[in-house]
Amino acid sequence: MSRTVTRSPQNSPEAGQNSESVLSHGLKQRHLSMIALGGVIGAGLFVGSGVGIAAAGPAIVLLFMGTGALVMLIMRMLGEMSAARPSTGSFSVHAEEEIGSWAGTTSGWMYWLMLCAGVAAEATAAGTIMHTWVSFIPAYGWVAIFMVFFCASNLTAVKNFGEFEFWFSAVKVTTIVAFLVLGVLGILGVFGDAPGTSHLTGHGGFFPTGAAGLAAGLLTTISGFAGLETVTIAAAESDNPSRNVARAVRTAVWRIAVFYIGSMAVVVTLVPWNDPKVAKDGPYVTVLDTLGIPAAGTIMQIVVLVALLSAMNANIYGSSRMAYSLVSRGQGPRFLAKVTKGVPAAAVLASCVFGFAAVIAGIVWPTTVFAWLLNIAGCAVLVVWSIVCLTQLKMRRRLEREAPELLSVRMWGFPYLTWLTFAAILGIFAVMAASADGRQQLIGTAFVVAALAGAGHLKQRRDRQAANGG
């Protein structure tokens, strides 16, 4: 029996005793716009990108152009589906409807795992920064403080999450804009001699480390974009989900490209790619020091702390809503569907507990359990994106047949760009398989994906039997 796309939330896969309609709708357009922008601007850009530059040299600009294009296409697909069918579970709900329970289960719980692992990594890094400033409190003490604070804030009204993310994102966006302005002035010679193309063509040329360096840098750039999906999850708790997510996606895609590609172009133009400080201190700090900006290290350390706390806040929110959506659809323990005053409190607590357990694992088993968790989380976003592509292919065709008026956001060049995006993701998997570390990540991820897909398939078969009266 075919499904229609014009269902009310009460008839959606999330419906039940605790349907998504009981969640509050406290997010506004300004919140979603900044979440869309800030969701992919994290510590990975400010610090982690230095590792990519050290691996690939000036060619990192081309890598960010490629991955940035990939991310914009993924975001456009998500925007198309979420504007037509807003849902707390976002792509997981869409995958269940279009492909089957196994796809919804796999994409949803993989995304939850990725976000919770991210909470652990970000809390640990933020605790380390705070310990350098306030040393009488150990790093793990700061981790506990941050975890309790953001868990408590996410247990209150959703507008608190929105306000935190709005101001966190405002700090990050302002920092990048200021950096780009100072960088362009530096390239023009305002702060000294103009560098010209000396750093782009010297020190081994534009491709100093060859294909191996590009492969290593590729994985770094991909991980830096994880988190963009949060805006499509948050849209369901805004006053006008379809309109708001459409606006947020449209305004975010080109700004993301400018921020990432522009930042990398400024860095590799102003400083040598093989300067040890680029990877050690971060590219932003290195450039600002080169330009003679006072207290550059301290300024960027504050910004990095803000970026880490922003990511923690967003990941706790996103993981809790995804868990809530999954269990509301019968794809997890039902007690996590408990809603208190418009907030999925049980799911928030569960996500925070798992994140804190991962922090402890990082202290006790840093090279085994925690490393294994981070490896799987690193691949999770690629698994999710591949399912997004397949879902969008089916959902778009169904929307065009049954309700074309819901397509307020349309994927560019459909279906060719969707297939091209899917092929690019498969290509990234192939690049990973060519290295020992990448193969280890893929093997661990494959086991988790197989387990989740198997559980989802069993549920799909039970649902089919129940529908047939058997």
Look at the structure and give the mean pLDDT.
Answer: 85
Radius of gyration: 22 Å
Query: Which H/E pattern describes the elements?
Result: HHHHHHHHHHHHHHHHHH
Name the beta content range.
under 5%
Helix-strand category: mainly alpha
Low-confidence stretches: 1-13, 15-21
How would a textbook summarize the main sheet? none
Task: Count the DSSP helices.
Answer: 18
Helix content: over 70%
Please give the number of β-strands: 0
Structural shape:
globular
- Terminal CA distance reads 16 Å
Question: Key features?
Answer:
470 residues; mainly alpha; 18 helices; 73% helix; disordered N terminus
Task: Characterise the protein shown here.
- The structure is a single chain.
- The protein is mainly α.
- It is 73% helix and 0% strand.
- The protein is globular.
Write the layout of secondary structure elements.
Elements: H1 29-38, H2 43-56, H3 60-84, H4 91-98, H5 101-133, H6 139-155, H7 158-187, H8 198-201, H9 210-224, H10 230-234, H11 241-270, H12 276-280, H13 283-290, H14 296-328, H15 345-364, H16 369-402, H17 416-433, H18 436-467
